[in-house]
Amino acid sequence: MLKYILTNIGLVLGLVIGVPFLFIFLLSAINRSTKQQIANQFGTGGQIGFGFLGIMIHEASHLLMALVFGHHVDQFRLVRFPTAESSTLGYVHHTWNKRNLYQNMGNLFIGVAPIFGCCLSILLLAKFTIPEVYQSLISSTQQSFSQMSFMMPTFNWLPMVIFLVVAANICIGGFDLSRADFENSKQGFWQAVIFLILVTLIISVTPLQDDLLTMLSHFTMMIVVTSLFNLVISVIMNLIFRFI
Questions:
Q1: In angstroms, what is the C-alpha Rg of the chain?
Q2: pLDDT digits (tens, 9 = 90+) for 123-176
């Protein structure tokens, strides 16, 4: 029984934290490099031109999750032009009760929210501009890890070009988590881990355990498929700005 519970805890932590954070670090590293290349060639303001949609989604994701976890939002700007005094392109200043477990745990999700916000935005963009590709992506999430495959369907080039231009803007401006974002996430990391362990312990001794693991597997497949999709776009944009 103990071995079974420990296995469940390992699976839950791996699926809920391990897999998403792997893609969070990859997407952030690639797009940080892209933004730096843009800044080197076009100046800091060039990051706004090539990534203003992503910047707005990035900050809006922080803002939304701060509200969900009951934080007090003191001030925010979804996008701003950098100045000599501050190079930041947007910000959300929030405070919370450090004695409140829920609010403390929320820091983890507030910090990494832009990754999920941008992934969801690009997925919705695909749904309305290239529905054939979107349906193929959704079908891929229904597969198991060992059977995962993706077949590129036929599509119209004009909607695809529109999708790629907008998706590139979101990737460039939105996926780059700052040092402050990661530091903020650290403040809620262990509270979230403890919470997940406690929930897993409770569910492991109830009939809900199989449903939980099935749901988590499906959730992880969605993360993997959408993140790989966004990784491909991010790598392409990185290569383009690296060689122009």
A1: 19
A2: 899 999 988 888 887 777 776 655 656 566 676 789 889 998 999 899 888 888
